[in-house]
Amino acid sequence: EVQLVESGGGLVKPGGSLRLSCAASGFTFSGYSMNWVRQAPGKGLEWVSSISSTSSDLYYTDSVKGRFSIFRDNAKNSLFLQMNSLRAEDTAVYYCARHYGDNFAFNIWGRGTRVTVSS
Amino acid sequence: EIVLTQSPGTLSVSPGERATLSCRASQSVSSTYVSWNQQKPGQAPRLLIYGASNRATGIPDRFSGSGSGTDFTLTISRLEPEDFAVYYCQQYVTSPPAWTFGQGTKVEIK
Description:
The complex is a heterodimer.
Chain A: E1 3-7, E2 10-12, E3 18-25, E4 34-39, E5 45-51, E6 58-60, E7 68-73, E8 78-83, E9 92-100, E10 103-109, E11 113-117
Parallel strand pairs in A: 2-11
Antiparallel strand pairs in A: 1-3, 3-8, 4-5, 4-9, 5-6, 7-8, 9-10, 9-11
Chain B: E1 4-7, E2 10-13, E3 19-29, E4 34-39, E5 46-50, E6 54-55, E7 63-76, E8 86-94, E9 97-101, E10 105-109
């Protein structure tokens, strides 16, 4: 079964750091670009970051540039999001999502991990 | 920055009826880059349509997508009980590479 499972969320104080992980299974992880998408409480979806299959291309939404870093370990079928200098507005459920082949859509999503930034 | 605006915000429909959801882009977008996702409460999103009109694997044919330029539409021909959810359009922007979502349309039972 194709699956993505996120972990690493939790409660963190403003200015703190957190590392999210996404474990992939059931497909050839190294062959796909991957993404992080977040959803603040009661709000819509917001794309956060994307990484190509070989890690050669990294992209971020403006609000997280310089604070978040996306990386992956293809040998361990894992995706990561290192989040530093966290703000209250980063509070959200964070989903990892896989590209749909060469299409510009995301067809496999994890169930998400919740991040709460609060003092 | 290209902004996606979805309408209506909430659509009240009876089971068996047709639902038409709109997604308008602030600038012309390649249809190749437009997709639609469904999200039910407490669940992850699910891809329905990619490339504006192509159904993703396993998606019933009552879901269809259309449109070009700045106006895109998701149509659900006959609403089933499991179709009541929030629907998001999504676009890819090439320079710099990024994805954006519309604010969502909630389809609720009338």
